[in-house]
Amino acid sequence: MQILGTVLAFVVAIGILVLVHESGHFGMAKWMGVKVLRFSVGFGPALITRRFGKDQTEYVIAALPLGGYVKMLGEEGDEAMAAEDRPRAFDALPPGKRFLIALAGPAANLLFAVVAYAGVAWLGIPGLAPIIGDVRPDSLAAQAGLVPGERVAAVAGQRIHSWEDLRLDLIAAAIGRSATRIDIIGAAGVRQSHSLPFGKLPADAIGPDFLSHGVGIEPYLPVKVGAVQPGSPAQRAGLQAGDRILAVNGQRIGTWETFLRLVEAHPGQALLLQVATASGQTRVLTVMPESVRNAQGKTIGRIGMALAPVPKDLIVIEHRGFLSGLLYGAERTWQMSVMTVEMMLRMVQGFISPDNISGPITIAEFAGRSAQAGLAPFLAFLGLVSISLGILNLLPIPILDGGHLFFYTLEMIRGVPLSTSVMQKSQQIGIVLLMMLMSLAFYNDIMRLLTP
């Protein structure tokens, strides 16, 4: 059922984004007076076909939902058509109007992202409070002087509301590879500033675990026992629901991730736990993690306990009004667009690893997770992927919209279109480049599945 839900969420997400993109081309073409022959969401065999309007445009939902297209009269340049239809052919338009039609698809994706992020602001999305629970030794955070218990207030002057805000703003700052100011509020309520030296950041640090492995911080999430499996090492040690684990082998524990890493790293080895009971008493227990093999065949430790729900005082949620939400949507779309472009440039320069390129498997996984989390997280996911789709299509690669924009710009400069042979060779090169990019994305997806 979980796999089915993931696939369904992926199909719905891609269908929405393709519909938005192609509607941009379609709407601009109709506004320019071009006769549209077909509007297809998906490729391959048609599942549903209908004809509407004066031009009897064919609307299609096809079997493969990984794309779509708008077919316009005269788009291929050598079509037979009635004399009265000739003025309404795509190739009869001046290059400036063809440029606008090609641009309308990516523009529609970016506008949709504004609305999606505005929807997130209107609904409000729960997030984890930006409180630092753990700082890894010798990390950038440790060099900057960050300590557990501090609450992040701002990054480069931008207010931080949740841990997700912190992650996005620090990734954007890290792409620039310059020292970035981070403002914190300490345990005593005193506000201080630190500088994160992102110029020292390795190329492979930016990724899904950027805050943990790149910056060296974990969110504050008390290790409170939610349930104990019968007959497990946790039960034999005396752990009970409601207990809070304060330290392991004398090391203070402020995050679930830190505790999990310690347990997994000590299969068959005794761990000394300092525990605070639900009644407020403190006691010391010894637990022996059992040895198990994970999906990658590696031996790790397990104790058989589950984490309690996140305390309500650590969950933050912010709602915005209509105009404020639209402004947030525009600001977030601009921020994510700039970050996407900068990440692409840094990737070409070798400052960011190409491992960050994701394919349909990873996208489907995130689609399923966000859909299960609720409407607001799903809208945030749609906004992010819509921006990626819009920016990707603006790349000057033949076969993509950006390639067409490049050709139309050359035509406007030269006064004549490129020759048919040049266009055909360019399209072939574009197909090869796109296949290489897709192959890298699939490779990264598969490696993520195989890597523990």
UniProtKB/TrEMBL annotation:
Top-rank taxon: Bacteria
GO molecular function, one term: metal ion binding
Membrane-spanning residues: 7-28, 99-123, 378-400, 428-446
Topology with respect to the bilayer: Multi-pass membrane protein
Keyword Thylakoid included in the entry's annotation: no
Membrane keyword on record: yes
Keyword set, alphabetical order: Hydrolase, Membrane, Metal-binding, Metalloprotease, Protease, Transmembrane, Transmembrane helix, Zinc
Cellular compartment(s): Membrane
Any one annotated GO CC term: membrane
UniProt-listed PANTHER family: MEMBRANE METALLOPROTEASE ARASP2, CHLOROPLASTIC-RELATED, REGULATOR OF SIGMA-E PROTEASE RSEP
Family stated for the protein in its record: Belongs to the peptidase M50B family.
Xref: NCBIfam families: RIP metalloprotease RseP
Name recorded for this polypeptide: Zinc metalloprotease
Gene: rseP
